[in-house]
Amino acid sequence: MILQKMHGLSNQQIAERMGISINTVNAQLVIGLARCRRFLAERGVARRKLP
């Protein structure tokens, strides 16, 4: 997530730099976002879902 959000790399660039598949990059980004959302929700910081 840091390489994408802070360094502006594309998923393809991250995959090439790390020597992993783009599918692995995508999967790890989904996992990372879910963990961030959960962390914020547990602390009452996350946006609430609209009905």
Question: What this model shows, in words?
Answer:
By secondary structure, the protein is an all-alpha fold. The chain has one domain. The protein contains three helices and no strands. It has helices spanning 2-5, 11-18, 22-42. Helix 2 crosses helix 3 (22-42). The longest helix has 21 residues, at 22-42. It is elongated. The mean pLDDT is 90.
Which keywords apply here?
about 50 residues; mainly alpha; 3 helices; about 0% strand; elongated
Annotate the secondary structure layout.
Blueprint: H1 2-5, H2 11-18, H3 22-42
Helix pairs in contact: 2-3
Quick rundown:
By secondary structure, the chain is an all-alpha fold.
Structural category is: mainly alpha
The whole-number mean of residue pLDDT values reads: 90
Number of contiguous helices: 3
Q: What is the count of distinct domains?
A: 1
Distance between the amino and carboxyl termini? 29 Å
Largest sheet report? none
Strand coverage percent: under 5%
Question: Stretches where pLDDT falls below 50 for ≥5 residues?
Answer: none
Radius of gyration: 14 Å
Percent of residues in helices comes to 55-70%
Order of helices and strands: HHH
By DSSP, the count of extended strands is 0
